[in-house]
Specification:
This protein is 31% helix and 30% strand. The protein is α+β, with helices and mostly antiparallel strands. The protein has a 5-stranded antiparallel sheet with strand order 5-4-3-6-7, with no helix packed on it. A 5-stranded mixed β-barrel has the order 8-9-10-12-11. Helix 3 packs parallel to helix 6 (314-320), helix 9 crosses helix 10 and helix 14 runs antiparallel to helix 15 (579-612). The protein is globular and about 85 Å long. It starts with a helix and ends in an 11-residue tail after the last strand. The relative contact order is 0.08.
Length: 708
Amino acid sequence: MKKNRKSFDKFSSRSNVRERARRELMRLVEETNVGTDHARIRLTDDSGYRAKRSESIADGIFSETQYGYGFVNIYGEKRDIFIPEGYTMNAVGGDTVRIKYKKFLSSSGEEKTEGRITEILEYGKMTIIGTVTVDIVRMHKKRINRWFVIPDDSRIKRRIALRGIEGASHGDKVMVRLIRDGFSLYELAGDVVSVFGRADTKDASYLSILAESEIDTEFTKEELSAADEAAAEVISNNNRFEKRQLIFTIDSESAKDLDDAISLKINTDGTYTLGVHIADVSHYVKEKTVLDRLATRRGTSVYFTDKVVPMLPEALSNGACSLNPGEKKYALSATIDLSATGDILNTVIENSIITSHVKGIYSEINAIFEGRADCAIIEKYRECIPTLSDMHSLYKILAKKSELRGALELDSPEAEIALNENGDPVEIVRRTRGDAEKMIEQFMLTANEAVATLLLSEGIPCVYRVHEPPPEDKISDFITFAHNLGFDTSYISSEKCSSGDLARLMKEAELRGISEPISYACLRSMSKAVYSDIHRPHFGLGIENYCHFTSPIRRLSDLATHRIIKKVLIEGKAKEKYRSYAKRAAAAATDGEMRAANAERRIDSLYKAIYMSDHIGNIYDAAVSSITSFGIFVSLENTCEGLIPISTLDNAAFDEANISMRSAVGVIRIGDILTVRLEESDISRGKLRFSFIDKKVIRGGGKGDAST
């Protein structure tokens, strides 16, 4: 009894202490205005106390790891929320999820976050591309095969258990439809729905990329028939102005879909009249027809290394709509008056008939501009040379104007891949651009700006090309990145960043010989340019009003803008009728562009991996393009890029603050030139792996680096 009494007294005494502690903490909470709605009191066993925040709820994108745990990137926040193993609800990388999470202080005083997924709001993936593998396991003294797929998507770190294999074999590239109906709560499972062939072959990888990107390479009989019927129409002068001045196209030698032609006149007062004559595709692709639905579904033509997947059948894209030399064609002509300094003074758009005098080729016109044209080229362009000279002068004026307004020219190298008769890559070189390419680009930019400005002033719907300023958090990260590399960033504000400020930084990067990695980092901080029916400026170009008007054969956005111009501006139809159309077309054009860009990039990577697979063991000089916690990305002169894994570097440690890698050979920074050896070319994933040999040239510099 005494023992029980003693225990009770001890418990009572401890309870009184805890009660006094609780009251004291409540007093402190009230005095410091910390609301109890967001905190609850938890007393420790030693009668101490601390505030523990209640759980918050948020939505975000899940990313997983191969170890079972993952992270959720909450919309609008920089920090990722840690999700422990067992609390992921079997979510897949890319899923949109709802989480409950809490913040707390670690023993070292650092704020940590941890949460659990409570709901999968939207599946990021329902189909996965990957390579089949098989495990032989023992079960009840028997050996059985367990089939899995290793995903190509790096966001998905787990193998997918296969329920049905549909004739697939070990090493095949397949498409798997995920089973996300609770079939398995403990592993990711799916059924094979398509078999593309051996994963290490070009054809299998090519087909899988097309399938995953939803690129349709064939036209239906109905679509081909409709295109043939439309293309058979005879050209007539009904309600059209026939343009009789000197008009010609300039494009690549291989181009067959010639949708833009140009003309130029210099007026006596020193002003220019630039004619931009665009194929009248909307005349052939009527509203609410099979061809209209086709263009809306595809959204754009797709340009691969070995072929073009056109938005419209060849009867139109390479035939009736293409502005081939010597042939009368329907066009929509924009006549733009420009001041001597390149300012847009007036724009007139009209239905026209044009005849291109010659198919200009970039390389040939560059030879003329550079004074190295041979007799054959001079003879071909004899009639056009005086006009070309005037056009070259106007180009320089427009380029200077573009520079003064702060247009961003991010140095993103493109590859030119040469193929043999079997379609295999035999050479990869860096694509170069001369004044001819840049001149046409400036003329098209001017036409796009002029058309958007005219439509906006008339209150006419338009499919604008818009580019929002970079998000404040991303541009802040870029400013820190550039500062740590030794750049003066004092003039760049994350709150009011201008394209001119970034263009100034790009020029400094070019002088230091590291424009490509800086351009890449800057590009990653940018918002994506999209199509919209709502007018907003284009940040990257530094243009207030901008749309796409000049490529209706290959882009839905331009085709839609043409249709609105013809129906509303020229024919006088009601504006309101086309507002909802502009919105639908903008959404479809953006979707098509994103799918095409993804497919084009991956096909390029595939061909690069195939080409480099014949060069395993070769030693190269490579520029450091990016440094991450898992390794160093390097880029070769031919634009092929790959990873040096951190695990292969002696005593390596990633220095996040200075964006560098510290290792046994010293500090490696972005822009440094390394000597590397190609160790692996993964054709299935289009990836290269290098090993480090030596640090050759230091170009990156950076804060606190004595080697600068």
